[in-house]
Design goal:
By secondary structure, the protein is mainly α. The chain is built from 6 helices and 2 strands; from the N terminus they run H-H-H-H-H-E-E-H.
């Protein structure tokens, strides 16, 4: 009986203290928000109503930004211009039957939005 009580107490303490969670992720996330590409891109994504079809973590009409970042992680710098072109002109086929409508944004703004999204990996 004592062993069960001690095990429950230990489990309760670990749970209450947050266990052995990865604290570096919290620091990395905080540092990410200081990145100028993050700030500018986030502002543009919000301003251009991209969150109508996308969210950071879950698929809505379009893929989640984290999935986009994961798919294109480690690609050459040219991927930013390619994806910015998709933002501007729209497209389909890369995410199944989903169709992305064109967006009236400049090349520079589209690239800033893409840079923000790619940071979310």
């Amino acid at each position: 009986m004592k062993k069960i009580l001690i095990a429950c107490l230990a489990f309760s303490l670990l749970t209450a203290c947050g266990g052995s969670g990865d604290k570096s992720k919290t620091v990395a996330d905080a540092d990410l928000t200081k990145n100028p590409d993050y700030k500018k891109g986030l502002d543009l994504v919000a301003k251009n109503r991209c969150m109508t079809c996308h969210t950071v973590a879950e698929q809505l009409t379009g893929p989640a930004y984290k999935e986009v970042a994961k798919r294109y992680a480690g690609r050459p710098d040219t991927i930013v211009a390619h994806l910015a072109n998709k933002v501007i002109h729209g497209g389909s086929g890369e995410w199944g039957n989903l169709v992305m409508t064109p967006n009236e944004v400049s090349q520079a703004d589209a690239e800033a939005m893409v840079k923000y999204i790619l940071l979310l990996k």
